[in-house]
Amino acid sequence: MLKIRLTRIGRKHDPSFRVVVTDSRRAPRSGVYLENLGFYNPRIKTSLALKDDRIKFWISKGAQVSDVVHNLFVSEGITKGKKINVSSVKKKEERPEEKKP
Description:
Elements lengths: L1 E10 L2 E10 L11 E6 L7 E3 L1 H9 L3 E2 L1 H10 L25
Parallel strand pairs: 1-5
Antiparallel strand pairs: 1-2, 2-3, 3-4
């Protein structure tokens, strides 16, 4: 299955990301991807460059979009829909109750 996801590039403590199309069986850090669709630098809010036509092409071919990349596409207006909550902090009511001895 094809996935559109981020792969990390950049120095230590200075992350930047490529938006790539890759086979889902490959590890994200393997460096092997089919096509580079753009880049994203989270430290500079205006630093986002995407190839709209190629993104729509790959989605039409059945490529699945990761949650974070989906949120980037929605904020840029490439796709329509609601953003997905991807925070790693779970809500208090979702945590299982810890047993006290």
